[in-house]
Amino acid sequence: MGSWMGIVFVVLFVAGFLVFNTPSKGTDTAKWANWWNDSGHRTAAVIGAYLIVLGLIAFVWFAASLRERFQTGGGLLLTFASIFAAVGFVGTLVRATIPGNKTFGGSSATPVPHGADLARQLDGLGFGILLVAGALSLGVFIFVVSNLARRDGTLPGWLTVAGYVVAVLQLAGAFFFPFVLAVLWVLIAAILFVRQRTPAGASNPA
User: For residues 43 and 141, what is the distance between their CA atoms, to the nearest angstrom?
Assistant: First the structure.
């Protein structure tokens, strides 16, 4: 079940991002105001935020299963997985501040900030938290997993080498594409872990 959680993480995380849409013209504050005044957009944002948070919970579960699989050295990967999840929680909730307040606090009681510039800034801040602190912690997680998998021979050599490269690329995670590669690497690794049997004598992952 733990290995399957890696796949669940990617599915929910990507779906959440697709559902949690924002205006295409990020500098048009009037468009931001109209966007969050639309109940359909607010509902989609709240649903997307929940999907992302659930995906991050699944990611921690996946990391816990890897800790059990690797035994020695597995604690470090769980630590950075937890940091990534915590950062992701914060970034997502920052982005969802205005649509969440208007949805649960009442649209009339919590109007969109005047000019909607704050809405644009909060969205940018949320992405910044995820693509800087989040990407770096995810990069360290991938590096540790690649190193342990190379040690134990649990992943193909090409994937562990790719993991090292992807981990380093997270230094440029703010450009988004390197972060996409990291999520893709997790998906491939999770699929391969699912196809493997638990080694004899190893404890079953939680």
Answer: 33
